[in-house]
Amino acid sequence: MTLIYLHGFSSAPGGNKGRVARAWAEARGVPFHAPDLNLPTFEALTVTAQVEAVEALVRSLPEPPVLVGSSLGGFVATATAHRGSPLASMILLAPAIHFAARRMAHPAWAAYRERGEMEVFHHGEGRPLRLGPELLRDLPRWADDGGWRIPVPTVILHGRVDEAVPLAESEAYAARNPEAILQVLEDDHGLLAPHSLAAFRSALDQAFGAPRS
């Protein structure tokens, strides 16, 4: 079985949690993929391009994978499952379940909506990058995400003091999806505290049948 890691908005596959997932997989001989989701480029980013790339990757595998999604990657994971891609399970790390609806209404994006572009600090590149109008045009396609019911075994890890993605989004998702288990951690959006990383590794162990180190 394969592990796929999906990074968040303005990030890259080699971020902190991506490195944790890769190290876990390599230590156990688990096939690992961490696609770059700045697609087609960060400037021309769309959620549609991200979801379609993950769907193509899942189709290329011999069996359903475990999908790990962080923040926006968590939304991409749920969208991939919602559209019918076969998945063994999902691990969602502070998933931005309502990314599209929340970003479309966010006051900080008012100037972006007016001008059709903005500068965003890209953590993968370590510098500000231009985000063009393609994301604005694409987001309405993904705004009606509040009622998805996804029959995929799922573990959600979410920080109690997350200021980027409201904990309420994960609570609502878990409430309407019986296959989902929510673990609320004493942490922020990064989920990088030692106990949060331990919970992440434990979720990976469980997803893969607790293989030995």
Helix and strand layout, with pairings?
Blueprint: E1 3-6, H1 16-28, E2 32-33, H2 47-59, E3 66-70, H3 72-82, E4 89-93, H4 99-105, H5 110-115, E5 118-122, E6 127-131, H6 134-138, E7 154-159, H7 167-176, E8 180-185, H8 194-207
Parallel strand pairs: 1-2, 1-3, 3-4, 4-7, 7-8
Antiparallel strand pairs: 5-6
Descriptive overview:
With 213 residues, this protein is an alpha/beta fold. The chain contains eight helices and eight strands. The chain has a six-stranded parallel sheet, sandwiched between helices. The chain has a two-stranded antiparallel sheet with strand order 5-6. Helix 2 packs across helix 3. The longest helix has 14 residues. It starts with a strand and ends in a 6-residue tail after the last helix.
Keywords:
globular, six-stranded parallel sheet, alpha/beta
N-to-C order of helices and strands:
EHEHEHEHHEEHEHEH
The Rg value, from CA coordinates, equals 16 Å
Beta-strand fraction estimate: 15-25%
- Tertiary shape: globular
Structural class: alpha/beta
Overall pLDDT level: 93
In short:
By secondary structure, the chain is α/β, with parallel strands linked by helices. Helix content is 37%, strand content 18%.
